[in-house]
Amino acid sequence: MNLKRPGILAAIAAATLALAACGSDNTSNAPSDSGSAAKPTIDCKTGSLTAQGSTAQGNAMDEWIKAYGQACSGASINYKGTGSGAGIQAFTANTADFAGSDSALKAGDEQTKADARCTGGKAINLPMVIGPIAVAYNLDGVKNLQLKPATLAKIFAGTVKTWDDAAIKADNPSASLPSTPITAVHRSDSSGTTENFTKYLKATAPTDWTTDASKDWKAAGGQGAAKSDGVAAAVKQTAGAIGYVEYSFVQVNSLNAAKIQNGAGEYVALDDKSAAKAVAGAQVGGTGDDLSLKIDYATKEAGAYPIVLVTYEIVCSKGTPADKLPLLKSFLGFVASKDGQAKLSQFGYAPLPDTLQTKVTASINNMA
Amino acid sequence: MSQQSLTTTPAGAQGAGGGGALPRGSRLGAEKLFRGLATAAGSTVLVIIVAIAAFLIVQAVPALRADSENFFTFQSWFANDDPPKFGIAAIAFGTVLTSALALIMAVPVALGIALCLTHYAHRRVASTLGFFIDLLAAVPSVVFGLWGRDYFRGPVGDFSKFLHDHFGWIPLFGGGGPYGNSILLGSIVLAIMVLPIVTSLSREVFAQTPAQNEEAALALGATKWEMIRTAVLPYGKPGIIASVMLGLGRALGETIALALTLGAVYNVSFDLLGTGGNTIAANIALKFAEANPTGRSALIASGLVLFAITLVVNMTARAIVYRRREFVGGAA
């Protein structure tokens, strides 16, 4: 909800500009919407697409669909943020033309069932939206909190209970830390964000983080809050709270985000560039056009922020109905393009790194 | 004149003996049709209930078969795992506990409001106040949830700290901080949501107390409070029970407000202040979107349990109302 605010502000700004322009003798067409003024070159197609899935990429999809609609008429695209699980189910049941998912299709039953839908091909994962996960905290007087993965794991596992704990002090030698008790806030709903965050903890701090990585929070203790919005609200309201949320929620709620130490030993602040660097270092785990990624959470890439969530579009490599295929390729082609990806940063997402972007575009072109 | 017109009614009606005309063929058909429609409407309820129960059972069985823990005693909910591990114990307990607490808080206040509106307040004040109560019932539950989460959590947290500091020796208030989403917060929000339902219904019941009963009590020298105790409350008892049960129904099924204000912790604990609490309905809302097929089936199994709990509660209420029926002479 809150994410719509930049849009409203932009609209107000645009309206103000337009009003100001009225006063003078303007001959040019008012550049009312500077965002779409430089129209991306889209190979427009018509038809309709329905898709659903991950809520984490919902805002990105809304933005892309809007941009595509502005550039091309006669296309109706619908994306519902129902959750990754629901998206995959709908894709498998042939009620969605593509699905958005926070994790690649799991080998086995999930992949086989999805493949069955794609006549003559298989279901493939295209990484499309990179959502950095921020570690947001609320601690008076501490602006530049730095955390090692092990410290982060200890905080969320409940073994570090106060902010002046020796482990946190060791990471922040120059900060004056209060003795406030730590309230670690986690998602109470099942979510890909929790899955990726716990995967990160499990990979980088296996001795301090002993519970399994999963969509459901499995560690004991801490406080649960519903959805990213709830976690952000709880962190904002509670002195001494710390929680993990998508980057956009930090921006919208003006929370502080901790710097996280990566595999190279440097503490990196979160922004779209540092997050993209982590993905650039990721390996492609899929074969052929399938581009599911293996993220190296202990990345040694300089300046890389290690906690990232990659959300995928799940499509058929072959077997998309002929009346849907041209529009699907055209839309995803736009989404994966530089123009499409450039729209993301204002919403707290990071654009795909160049090498990956080339691969995704190639995979889309191969769809039949 | 009128008598004359009566005697000149058609001969066919004379055999009816009672003044009413015997329905002719076509009207008899209408009678049957209406009877049929009404019966159909009545049986629709049964059909829907049976259909829901059948749906829940059919959908729940696969998950119950796959569950690697005891469904009734296990306290966590990891239904998406392989093998799935989930149990109803914690969330069923949380459902009953939050609903019971909400009723304990809401019912006395609601009855007080209802009595005030019917017997104490000035007529104009009463109608205005009644209007606001009804308005409260129309507020969507997500609004209550967001309000509880964003504005009410702070004060309740402070109150929790106060309770813990002064009454910490009572196990209910034993939970030390930090205070955030807790059973206390959830059940207070729930109590506010239940309040208008209980109030509206019991107000109607109290307003129907026969004037003779009240006047008789007053004539025997009862004070106003004694009159309410001896005439109004006994008369309204079945109505009060019915209103409480309706409120309980809402409390048991409440979803989003509790998903936002409870701590979503899966354990059986009477600690009201610390992070905790979860209910069946809230758990379904939180887990459904990302659930895999087994996970969905498991959530439906939990829905079946909620269905059963509600059924038992309603039947108990029916039984109570039925038993007291003769005492108040058919007021139920």
Architecture overview:
Chain A is an alpha/beta fold and 368 residues long. Chain A folds into 2 domains: 181 residues, Periplasmic binding protein-like II (D-Maltodextrin-Binding Protein, domain 2, 3-Layer(aba) Sandwich); 146 residues, D-Maltodextrin-Binding Protein, domain 2 (3-Layer(aba) Sandwich). Chain A is 38% helix and 19% strand. In chain A, the strands form 3 sheets. In chain A, strands 1, 2, 3, 4, 6, 7, 8, 9 and 14 form a 9-stranded mixed sheet that branches. In chain A, helix 6 crosses helix 8 and helix 12 runs antiparallel to helix 14. Chain A starts with a helix and ends with a helix. Chain B has 332 residues and is mainly α. Chain B has a single domain, classed as MetI-like (MetI-like fold, Orthogonal Bundle). Chain B has 11 helices and 2 strands; from the N terminus they run ααββααααααααα. Chain B has a two-stranded antiparallel ribbon with strand order 1-2. In chain B, strand 1 and strand 2 form a beta hairpin. The chains are: A alpha/beta (368), B mainly alpha (332). Chains A and B meet through helix 4, strand 7 and helix 9 of A and strand 1, helix 5 and helix 10 of B.
Under CATH, the topology of chain B can be stated as MetI-like fold
**Which residue ranges of chain A are poorly predicted, with pLDDT under 50 across at least 5 consecutive positions?**
1-38
CATH H-level homologous superfamily name of chain B: MetI-like
Taking all Cα atoms into account, the compactness measure Rg of chain A is: 22 Å
Helical residue percent band of chain B = 55-70%
The largest contact between protein chains, plus residue counts on each side, is: A-B, 33 and 30 residues
CATH homologous superfamily caption of the largest domain in chain A: Periplasmic binding protein-like II
Family (chain A): Belongs to the PstS family.
InterPro entries (chain A): ABC_phos-bd_PstS, PBP_domain, Phosphate-bind_PstS
Keywords (chain A): Phosphate transport, Signal, Transport
Domain PBP (chain A): 45-338
